[in-house]
């Protein structure tokens, strides 16, 4: 719909309800309608500012995307993909997209604002978290991953910086710039359902042949509470085909030099040079997809994966739809994520399933107890070498149940990770003993620490983005031909 034909609306009149799956509305707004309070995140082609709507007084994390950059680097499809995924996902553990608007220079996404910072901040301020807090936060992440799996989405950039604390201290997942919608046959890693069924059968034989009659706590495949949408289908269809051939590992390919980021590998095996250069410029530690922004400023080099689509378009092939998993799965797997949390199958250029997020959960759980990621090294190259060998040491004093869970998540073979076939197996682990899964999101969250750095970033600071404030008052009115088709 043309911008001029839409009725004017305030964000409150148009924004989605918490459990509303309808697309976020495109409103007739301008940057001048908001008071810009402070910058809360940065990416290579976008930044996020805390913005207060002048008429309603409501605050939003306003993601500002540079149109010129995304057009020049041909990553418009990836902005569309992120927006479409946010439209499809409506869960209280995921930060909501309330509205969007455009002007001649930028795209604006009005996201839910989480005022209490990142989970990373809590780890940084405390050094490490206590067992009760780590259990609570890990359980909330498990529910997020269960929801994403039910909708066939793999996030691919789960990390403490992308887990924000809302006003009540509960976690919200952000930054879907690296996320991918999977075809049904690729939700589970190859062999996961069969291995889980074999393990369940072995347990039944050991117990005298008694049948559990449903999804077992040890990872049986079924449709009970906490089960996965794709589990039954995957077991019936057998082992899914791998979406891509195994590529070289960082230790054997010779293409990953010390202190150099891993670039996306296209169908011809060449690196996406522009994406790697952009990543070096941003310095955010990403492998090839999204910047480590505080509030989801988007992929640091969404061009990494997009370069493949741009190349296909140049050769006369039509780019795949961002929500069409069947076409996207035919392309070689892209290296996306953040170095310290990326899974070995991504580094090895193997097919990626929802089990990649289980690896990241293991890294996050480790960091909550140790204060640092498990594979942290002086360079990304050394980090990658440790990841592909699963080389890490458990911190001293780690509770036995936490140690067991971490070691069962940080498994090289995706199909062997706990919860790979069924999240119910993960829920049933002894580390989560006593967790009331049904009421978790309504329970009182662990006490959190205020970040003193936020006081230095208030709107009274003279150093805050004077260029943004002046831009807001100087922008020309948007024209109909200025709008990019994101709906």
Notes on the protein architecture:
With about 475 residues, the chain is α+β, with helices and mostly antiparallel strands. It has two domains: about 5-115 and about 455-465, Phosphorylase Kinase, domain 1, CATH 3.30.200; about 120-190 and about 240-440, Orthogonal Bundle (Transferase(Phosphotransferase), domain 1), CATH 1.10.510. Helix content is about 30%, strand content about 10%. The chain is built from 17 helices and nine strands. The chain has a five-stranded antiparallel β-sheet, sandwiched between helices. The protein has a two-stranded antiparallel ribbon with strand order 6-9. Strands 7-8 form a two-stranded antiparallel ribbon. A hairpin with a 5-residue loop joins strand 2 (about 45-55) and strand 3.
Defining traits:
Phosphorylase Kinase, domain 1, disordered N terminus, globular, Transferase(Phosphotransferase), domain 1, alpha+beta, 487 residues, 32% helix, 5-stranded antiparallel beta sheet, 2 domains
What's the arrangement of secondary structure elements?
Layout: H1 11-14, E1 34-42, E2 46-53, E3 59-66, H2 67-72, H3 76-88, E4 97-102, E5 106-111, H4 119-126, H5 131-150, E6 153-154, E7 163-165, E8 171-173, E9 180-181, H6 192-206, H7 231-237, H8 250-253, H9 273-282, H10 303-314, H11 325-328, H12 344-347, H13 355-370, H14 380-389, H15 400-409, H16 423-427, H17 466-474
Antiparallel strand pairs: 1-2, 2-3, 3-5, 4-5, 6-9, 7-8
